[in-house]
Task: inverse folding
């Protein structure tokens, strides 16, 4: 007989037989059943977490795959365990609160909202796990998807908010979406940066404009360093002074910036610098300077070969060599330029397979610029600056050997020397 009786009715009868009123008996019976349901839901939570921590985790660690380890580390399975107590409460609430329909509706609505939140957290954890898996792929270096992941998570949260509002205010989601359509202008204004960031992220990814690890320069944002993160709204750049600047993602599309990745991938780094020669020191190569320069090993063959070429040309054209202006002759600047080319060709840190130019630029009131346009084969910033400095240290030191002088605006010592004379 007792097996066929409902447990809650059995409790109620016991309390009524004990002399309590029917309302008091119902209340006590409900209270006891609620405590039982709470204990069962707590037990379901404990059992679920035990299974995940002791069984699932061991199975995952024994597999050869890495993606399941990432799911475990991202707490995907742990967040799913929150559904266990919620399902228990949802299924048993009708039995526990059958005498209190208002409370039943409240508890079920609260449980529903809890499951929506748990589902949102679980789904975001799942998205984070797949993003981590993708980041470990080689393609992730060239096509980061963090912006898309953030947008997807925003959409998940947005849908969850719509569901929660719909449940709390007893409104259909269609009606809420229709209302949001009327507020589209306001939403566009509020989420302007997010929308611009998303469009910019698509362009940056599709056109391979920038990736994590690239050295970029954004003069308008005072950013000059390495990209350490690309998100939906911002790009983080660590400057060489170790400061971090956040640049809006859309700024890299709407404003100009310089990406040095091409230089790093080419195997060389450009050296482009000039030495201004005092034009008053430029002249034909004298015999004294010639004899001194013939002792320079890398220049000897050039001078001998060039003199033979010029002598043949002048003899063929019967040039009167009693006047220096007639015919073709070596100049100290021309020989110095040949020396610079020979010196750089023999330099172990200069890339011979890339652009190699030693040229004169337009003369100005600051002298005649002799520009060196070459590439070093060492791209490291510190080494590059050292190579560049060593080259120009040497060239500035040897210029007087060619009878040339470097142009420099008069200094205080120059004016002092004139006054003392």
Result:
């Amino acid at each position: 007989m007792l097996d066929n009786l409902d447990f809650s009715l059995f409790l109620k009868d016991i309390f009524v037989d004990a002399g309590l009123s029917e309302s008091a008996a119902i209340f006590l019976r409900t209270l006891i059943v609620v405590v039982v349901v709470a204990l069962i839901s707590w037990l379901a939570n404990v059992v679920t977490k035990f299974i995940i921590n002791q069984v699932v985790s061991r199975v995952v660690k024994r597999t050869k795959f890495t993606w399941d380890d990432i799911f475990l580390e991202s707490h995907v399975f742990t967040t799913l365990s929150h559904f266990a107590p919620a399902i228990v409460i949802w299924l048993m609430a009708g039995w526990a609160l059958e005498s209190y329909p208002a409370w039943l509706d409240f508890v079920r609505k609260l449980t529903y909202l809890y499951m929506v939140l748990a589902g949102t957290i679980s789904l975001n954890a799942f998205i984070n796990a797949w993003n981590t898996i993708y980041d470990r792929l080689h393609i992730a270096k060239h096509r980061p998807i963090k912006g898309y992941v953030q947008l997807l998570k925003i959409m998940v949260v947005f849908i969850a908010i719509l569901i929660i509002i719909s449940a709390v205010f007893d409104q259909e989601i269609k009606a809420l979406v229709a209302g949001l359509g009327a507020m589209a202008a306001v939403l566009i204004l509020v989420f302007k940066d997010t929308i611009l960031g998303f469009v910019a992220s698509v362009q940056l990814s599709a056109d391979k404009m920038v990736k994590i690890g690239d050295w970029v320069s954004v003069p308008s944002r005072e950013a000059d360093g390495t990209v350490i993160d690309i998100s939906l709204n911002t790009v983080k750049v660590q400057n060489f002074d170790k400061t971090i600047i956040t640049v809006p993602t859309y700024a890299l599309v709407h404003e100009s910036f310089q990406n040095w990745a091409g230089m790093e991938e080419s195997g060389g780094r450009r050296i482009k610098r000039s030495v201004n020669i005092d034009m008053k020191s430029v002249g034909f190569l004298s015999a004294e300077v010639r004899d001194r320069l013939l002792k320079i090993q890398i220049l000897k063959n050039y001078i001998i070969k060039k003199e033979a070429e010029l002598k043949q040309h002048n003899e063929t054209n019967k040039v009167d060599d009693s006047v220096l202006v007639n015919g073709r002759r070596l100049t100290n600047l021309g020989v110095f330029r040949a020396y610079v080319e020979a010196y750089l060709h023999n330099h172990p840190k200069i890339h011979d397979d890339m652009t190699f130019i030693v040229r004169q630029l337009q003369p100005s009131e600051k002298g005649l610029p002799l520009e060196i346009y070459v590439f070093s084969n060492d791209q490291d910033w510190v080494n590059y600056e050292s190579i560049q400095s060593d080259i120009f240290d040497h060239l500035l030191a040897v210029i007087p050997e060619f009878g040339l002088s470097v142009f420099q605006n008069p200094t205080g010592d120059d004016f002092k020397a004139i006054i003392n004379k």
Q: What stands out?
A: Residues 22-62 form the longest helix (41 residues). The chain is about 60% helix and 10% strand.
